[in-house]
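Chain particulars:
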Amino acid sequence: MGNLAISTALITGGGTGVGAVMARMLADAGVKVAVSGRRPEMLAEVAKHPNITAIPADVTDEASVRAMFGTFCDVIGAPDLVIANAGMAESAPFGKTSIDLWKRTMDVNLTGTFLTFREGLNVMDRARPGRLISIASTAGLKGYAYVTAYCAAKHAVVGLVKSLATELAATPITVNAVCPGFMETPMLEQSVANIVGKTGMSAEDARASLAKINPQNRFIQPEEVAETVMWLASSQAASITGQAISVSGGEI
């Protein structure tokens, strides 16, 4: 397992995108991983790896999150690494942002992180090295037009991370956020489709307009985020806590 400080991990939103990439990278390193999400068929595909277990759950539901960790402890043991990765984004002009859109965005991105961290921490061994990591976004570090709810939720996640890191500073458990820029995932394709639908722009031009936000004129790859998580999960990162690490090609 090399220099990893952890041996077990749970990842929400683990059925697709960066969640699946992180799960496979950790599992390849010998970590016993559970992936969670609301689509069992996607989780089952990731769980074909011998070191990965699927645990369907809804991060917006308190009882579901508690049951998820109960199953994890029964099947794998206490988690050393908990990654709050489940997220969603919808766009709308601020004046047309409905209360339902606002609540959905907060429920998944903010409340989901809160519940995942709280229930995960409650079953972690506080005498052992542990890691709580949120996959946030550069939207937690700056503002973007038309995604006010998403930016507000991700800024709140960064605040949660910083506060909890201070609370746990005397323990061997660190708390950090990884903040990618636009990343090559299914969520990016949703953003492209939204631009195409609202502007009539071609998909190619829509992708180019998003890539240009990154000074390197490209999209972040899920593997880059996963490698950042691997470093945070290592023994070398024991003093890194309360940080919001931008993985964005210099955008922030």
In short: The first strand starts at residue 8 and ends at 12. The mean pLDDT is 96. Residues 99-123 form the longest helix (25 residues). Residues 100 and 106 are 10 Å apart (CA to CA).
